[in-house]
Structure formats: C-alpha cells, structure tokens
Amino acid sequence: MSFSFAFALDEQGEAGLAPEEPAVQPVAGATACASPSTSGAAAGTGRSWTLDELMDTLPSRISYSALSVPLDAAAPGGSPRAVPIFRRDLFDARFQVLTSSTEHDDDDDDDDVEEGTPRRQGAAAAAAAAQEEQTHVGAASDLLPGVYEGGLKTWECSLDLVAALDSLDRARTEAAGEAWSWLRGCRVLELGCGTAVPSAFLLQRLFSLSDAPPQQQHEARQAEAKATLLHLCDFNAQVLQLVTLPNLLLAWYFSPASLSYRQTSGSAFESADLVASSGDIAVSGALRAAFVASLAQQHIELRFDSGDWSALRLEQRYDVVLSSETIYAPRSLATLCETLQRACRATPAPQEARLCERLRHTSLATGEAFDSPSASAPHALPAASPTTCLVAAKILYFGVGGGVRAFEAELRRRRGWSEVLRETQAGVGRVVLGVGWA
C-alpha cells in the first residue's frame, strides 16, 4: 500500500519555540474557526486515560533537548534567572507517528482476512481513522482547525506560565518556609496542555522537594495524606501520548527522585546542570517501574483526558488551574470560560481580597488592631482555599480573531474577573492573567 506523510519539520520550532503566530490551515469539512474544545471529534466527546494506557504507547527510546526558560529576577535589579526544562524533540515524536503509520499499512496488507467481512471492514475503518489522525498531528502546519490544535509544539506563553508560577512560589515561600512545599497535596489542572511545560516544571519541583523540617512535618503529613494531583487535558489523544507523558517522564528523570534508578542503570549524574543539553534515554521496563514507584512514594497522581472540554468530568474543584494559548479562537471562549469556572473555587476579586486582608489587621473605623482578643475581623475570606487560576495568552491573535480583550469580555459576561499578573511587551505582547469567580 502506498503511503504519503505530510512531513516538513519546522526548524524554528525544533530549535526552540513555535512561531509567535500560528500558521492556520483550513481542513475540508471543518469549521473555519473551530475551537480546541470542538476540534478532532464530535462536540461532547472525550475520554480519560490511565497512566498505564499511555505508558504502553511510549517508544523504546526518547530523544530530548533542554529548553532554558527565563524567570523573573528574584529582586529588582537582580541577576537574570533561568530554569532548564527537558522536553521530547519534535522530530522524535513525528518519527514515532511515521513508524506507527507504516505499521498500520503493514496490518492492512494482511491477506489472511477475507475482503468484505465485518472484521476486515472494521480493521480498515480503524486504520483509516488512525492514519488520518497521525497525518494531521504530523503535518507541517501549526494548526488544522477542526482536527489538530498545535499541541506537539511548545508555545511561548507556556513559558510565561512557568515564570509566573516561579514568582508565585517565591511570594508564598516568604510567608510559609520551604520553596514549593505548598504544592504538596494540591489539585492541579492544565487545560490545553500540549507539551505540558508548566506541569513538567511543577512535577520536577515536587520531585526535588527535600524532607520537611521538624516544625513542618505535621503539616506535611497532613498534605501528603491526600495525593498531589496533576490533571492534564489536551484535545488530541496523540499529543498526550507523544509529548505530554514523555515530558513528564523526563521531568522525573532529571530530578533527584530518579537518582537510585540512574545509579543502577549506569547513567548517574549529580544534577541536571551536568547533563548534556540534548541526548536520548532508553525507556526500559525498569525505568517505567521506577517512575511509577517514585510517583507512589511522593503521593503524586497523574490523570489525563482527551477530547471536548465540555465532556471533561471534573469531580472536585482545583487548587491551581493553568491554561496557555487557548483563547485565540473566539468560538472557543464560551467553552473555555465555562470549564474554568467549573474547575475553580470561589475566589474574591483582587481588590476585595486585598481589602479583606487589610481588615484582618486594622479596623478602618477605629484604627484598632485586630490582634486584640476583643477584636474580630468584620470580613472573612471563604473557608475553602481559593483557586489560583492562571491564563497566559497573547494580547491579540492576528488573523484569527481572538485575544485578551475578547476573553475578558466573556469573563465579565459570566461574572468573572481578571487581573494582569505578568506582562511582556517584546514582540507580540503577552500577559499572564489571574482569573476567578467570586
């Protein structure tokens, strides 16, 4: 059987990031401005994936490169900072697509099954559907509306989320001790995860946590009693298989949690700083088992979903919700905002939260400090911890129609609020928004 694959590697995307503006290619039969929540399958469809199911799709080797993500200075005028995040190479993911597609062709050439039988017809239909998805995911275009939404590439706004999370941690660490200790026991959701750079960053931080100091051991045990959840969602199941899980695996591999495995496998190194910026690792059965064991030891649960956002089952609210580059298509905004609202606990608007915090310490009427036993604060924040919801996006997506202004308008329509937490003006302007519903 002849085979045709739309392969044309994007050199800029391979070297670092995808282009600032996605190249959108129309697809026959697809809506011109299809949203991520309605692309690739009928609206309302979705599927949950177990870690074991996705692990079964891993190749025998993964080629990787380190991405240096710039962080904000720790103090005004301070030195530039950066963190390395290891991710699977795009060419390696596409090669796996190519290999898988040729295997489907070989299966189609099986002459043991009689033409026209239900088994043969079903196999042919399944192979055709699989090859269609593989061809779209492996295509040179950044976006194929209605089919594939660019999840194989790393988009720059996902790096902005990493910087914003780092700043959030520094602010919380000043008030609560060990860096990233607040992350233990949290429920984290990343919508439109793609290469999952923010989640990989958080997972590496979790695997790098030291034992809690004595004064924090009780709190740590309480947090560890409930697992830390990382819930990753992308419309295309192949994106979860090809880049999302491999990048989480690399986050573990280049963390202290994998040291025991690396020592026994002969690939020990003292820290990720001493690792070559590119290379490959063998995905053996022992490596998979060590990865799963580390997750269990650290009480970390990984959950995956593909398909329509409207079909996403959210059993509980989340502590941290992340999304980047998901507001470019106007028709996706209603579904995105509805999903974000379902995922978030009530969170006071920034102005209200700051006022409540001020009223905790000082009475505006009398000037009396509320440290006094006889005093009580007139306002209280919600009993449940509010959700930290961060949405990173470009100010405007030229030629597509979406952008921050349209997203904020949809938020207001749903009685939500937003606040600019981080802004980048170089090139196409980008922001990280804090989002919530009171």
TrEMBL record:
It is an enzyme of class 2 (transferase). InterPro entries: Methyltransf_16 (IPR019410), SAM-dependent_MTases_sf (IPR029063). GO terms for biological process: methylation. Keywords: Cytoplasm, Methyltransferase, Nucleus, S-adenosyl-L-methionine, Transferase. SUPFAM superfamilies: S-adenosyl-L-methionine-dependent methyltransferases. Residues 99-134 are annotated as: Disordered. One of its GO terms (molecular function) is protein-L-histidine N-tele-methyltransferase activity. Gene3D superfamilies: Vaccinia Virus protein VP39. It is found in: Cytoplasm; Nucleus. Belongs to the methyltransferase superfamily. METTL18 family. This is protein-histidine N-methyltransferase. It comes from Tilletiopsis washingtonensis.
